[in-house]
Design brief:
The chain is of the alpha+beta class. It is built from eleven helices and twelve strands. The chain has one domain: 4-Layer Sandwich (Glutamine Phosphoribosylpyrophosphate, subunit 1, domain 1), CATH 3.60.20. An eight-stranded mixed sheet has the order 4-3-2-6-5-1-11-12. A four-stranded antiparallel sheet has the order 7-8-9-10. Helix 2 packs antiparallel against helix 3, helix 3 runs antiparallel to helix 4 and helix 10 crosses helix 11. This is Isoaspartyl peptidase.
Length: 353
């Protein structure tokens, strides 16, 4: 008995069309711009106070982080993974105020904040005041991907971490000699400031006496992948000698972190209270979206005009849908690195290099 003949419904013309679609899709992926930018905090970074060896250590770590994120993008990986990959390297280094290098609170412990945002979906995740999380940006990602919430804080955030199979680390993991010395120095400055106050010491007034470097320090990354998706993430140990559960801008979506496809991605570093009040990350993206300003113009207007006029100090890394990068800051320096598709990494600390 002869078997029935099975005729293919795929005609030569249809096959040719499908092949053309695959080729065009592949070509689009190859031509789609991709970029990444990272920062390790802004502040009074004096050339005179950094030895050549210290400068090189910062530059090497920044290059390591930006290159790691770039490799994710180069292989077709997504922007969120590129962001977390780069930030993890900075969090694991004692050089930066995030993760291992987190500053001390007034009580001699460490409280860390982080946030991440997916420009494709506008989903976001954040954690605040965590004390036992080695890489807070990873927990922020889990909040975004594995919970119905945007921000979790303190003990509750760490209970959620355990439910997601995170390992908690002892608080001593974050102890470093250099940060402890900063704590001692900052407390001495606070005490000196309070002694000048008549009557009851004024906590707010005494904090104002602290140098800028005690008030901020952050790491962050923004990325554009080959699929055209933007992402941003920020992680920090907060302010040296912070008290009363203080939380800055880093975990606040729209202040320290923001990303939206076809618009921009931003990660901020600076005096958090100002970045919250002036909605810095969101304001930059709003200027791009509604006023059709370039990412360079929008970021510069917010950092070097609006923010500085109000007394706010710091900087941002910002990226648009075409892979253009802006890194404005109104402080003496900002640790940062950028890398665009097909180009080598650029690592910078001051305005000129």
């Amino acid at each position: 008995m002869r078997k029935p003949t099975v005729r293919s419904s795929i005609t030569p013309s249809l096959l040719a069309g499908l092949m053309g679609l695959l080729i065009s899709t592949s070509a689009l992926a190859e031509t789609q711009p991709f970029s990444i930018a990272i920062h390790g905090g802004a502040g009074t970074i004096s050339k005179a106070k950094l030895t050549e060896a210290q400068q090189q250590a910062y530059r090497d770590k920044l290059k390591e982080a930006v290159d790691a994120g770039y490799k994710v993008l180069e292989k077709g990986g997504d922007s969120l993974t590129a962001v977390t990959t780069a930030i993890n390297i900075l969090e694991d280094s004692p050089l930066f105020n995030a993760g291992k290098g987190a500053v001390y609170t007034y009580d001699g412990t460490h409280e860390m904040d982080a946030s991440i945002m997916d420009g494709r979906t506008l989903n976001a995740g954040a954690v605040a005041g965590v004390k036992h999380i080695k890489n807070p940006i990873n927990l922020a990602r889990a909040v975004m991907d594995k919970s119905p919430h945007v921000m979790l804080s303190g003990q509750g955030a760490e209970e959620f971490a355990l439910s997601q199979d995170f390992s908690l680390v002892p608080v001593t993991y974050f102890d470093t000699d250099s940060r402890y010395q900063q704590l001692i120095d900052a407390k001495a400055k606070l005490k000196a400031a309070e002694s000048k106050e008549a009557g009851k010491p004024d906590y707010q007034a005494s904090v104002n006496y602290l140098d800028l470097d005690y008030k901020f320090g952050t790491v962050g990354a923004v990325a554009l992948d080959k699929q055209g998706n933007l992402a941003a993430g920020t992680s920090t140990g907060g302010m040296t000698v912070k008290r009363f559960g203080r939380i800055g801008d880093s975990p606040v979506i729209g202040a320290g972190t923001y990303a939206e496809n076809q618009v921009c991605a931003v990660s901020a570093t600076g005096h958090g209270e100002y970045f919250i009040r002036y909605h810095v990350a969101g304001d930059i993206c709003a200027k791009v979206k509604y006023q059709q300003k370039s990412i360079l113009q929008a970021a510069d207007e917010v950092i070097n005009q609006r923010l500085i006029t109000a007394g706010g100090t710091g900087g941002v890394i910002a990226l648009d849908q075409r892979g253009n990068i802006a890194t404005p800051f109104n402080t003496e320096g900002m640790y940062r690195a950028t890398r665009k598709g097909g180009e080598q990494a650029k690592v910078m600390i001051w305005q000129d290099n």
